[in-house]
Design brief:
Radius of gyration: 24 Å
Low-confidence stretches: none
Order of helices and strands: HEEHEEHHEEHEEEEHEHEHEHEHE
Largest sheet: 6 strands, mixed
Number of strands: 15
Structural class: alpha/beta
Helix content: 25-40%
Shape: elongated
Oligomer: single chain
Length: about 350
């Protein structure tokens, strides 16, 4: 009862806001989505995301087309380099805004002969997805109504190159371990709509229990699903992979650990970066640690040739020789080495 009453109050507030500001809003309730050059699966997925998130909130199922319609409001979606003849049509409002950088976008609402037009122009595929996210957040979405600010005109580029979250499917989080594949899909989608470009997952074996009574799938199965989902949105996939073994120098122990990594890496549709903590857990001196990572890199690249390995010095023993050895390896610039992660401890 309490939750229903709260939802009614929120809806009433939205309707009142829309009425008060109606003169400042353009009505896209009868809009059609026009696309240009969006041929890839990821770009098509972005169009579907816009349609699906709008229909959830308004019951309006927007049609997508490549043909202009003079009688309906238009939401125009394109990549900057694939606008073709449309570039000249809107050259003035586009040039009035700063050209965004990688993963950026321009979002503009225009009035063309009493026909509202919203432009979502991504500098690349991720930029287009982030543009859709901003479009949704700028909209007033009510039952059977879609409103956008008439004076909307912005160009933006992400400030940081890596923007992600760890989604650890394990008992320690007290949340994710009870989620379904569909919940992870929606959550990853919403992270992307708010600007995330990477998702960090975990292998089945970490410093936690292997399973829990709440898990809908095994850790191995969900790990693969998380990778697949992230890839479907064009997001980078990271994996936090601690060294849980007891010996990384004996050939038999190393072979056992490498076989596990073969199984894990092979199961993933996408993996862009491996993050191996130097400690917490793990307790390897930098010399055996980097020797071990060299072997991990060989296995990793047999399934994901472009992936890099990142390392953190967390929980290292605070001695000068220990850190000197770490920086010696960092400065060696191994071809598989991605960088240093600033972690806890």
């Amino acid at each position: 009862m309490g939750r229903s009453f709260t939802l009614i109050l929120l809806l009433a507030a939205q309707i009142l806001f829309a009425q008060v500001h109606s003169q400042d809003m353009a009505d896209f309730s009868q809009a059609i989505i026009i696309t240009s050059g969006l041929e890839s699966a990821i770009a098509q997925k972005t169009v579907e995301v816009l349609q699906q998130e709008i229909v959830k909130r308004t019951s309006i199922d927007l049609e997508a087309s490549k043909t202009w319609n003079e009688t309906q409001p238009v939401i125009f979606m394109a990549l900057a380099e694939k606008m073709g003849d449309w570039q000249e049509r809107w050259s003035e409002p586009l040039q009035a805004l700063e050209t965004p950088g990688p993963e950026g976008f321009r979002l503009i609402v225009l009035e063309e002969e009493n026909q509202p037009v919203a432009l979502v122009i991504g500098q690349d595929e991720r930029g287009l997805l982030y543009g859709v996210g901003r479009l949704l957040r700028k909209s007033i979405l009510l039952p059977d109504q879609i409103l956008l600010p008439k004076e909307l005109a912005l160009s933006t580029t992400p400030r940081y190159p890596i923007r992600g979250h760890q989604l650890g499917y394990r008992p320690k989080t007290n949340s994710y371990d009870a989620w379904t594949v569909q919940q992870f899909d929606q959550y990853i989608r919403e992270l992307a709509l708010f600007g995330a470009n990477s998702i960090e997952i975990m292998p089945p074996r970490t410093d936690d229990d292997f399973t829990s009574e709440h898990m809908k799938l095994s850790a191995q199965q969900m790990m693969a699903e998380q990778s697949r989902i992230s890839d479907s949105y064009g997001l980078d996939v990271w994996m936090w992979y601690p060294n849980m073994g007891e010996d990384y120098t004996h050939p038999d122990s190393i072979d056992k650990e490498l076989q596990e990594r073969h199984r894990v890496f092979k199961a993933l549709q996408r993996l862009d970066a491996l993050f191996v903590p130097g400690g917490d857990p793990g307790d390897l001196h930098p010399d055996p640690l980097f020797a071990w990572l060299e072997q991990v890199a060989t296995v990793l690249h047999s399934y994901h040739p472009q992936a890099k390995i990142w390392v953190s010095p967390q929980a290292f023993r605070p001695t000068a020789s220990w850190l000197d050895a770490f920086y010696k390896h960092v400065n060696a610039r191994y071809p598989w080495f991605g960088g240093v992660v600033f972690g806890p401890w």
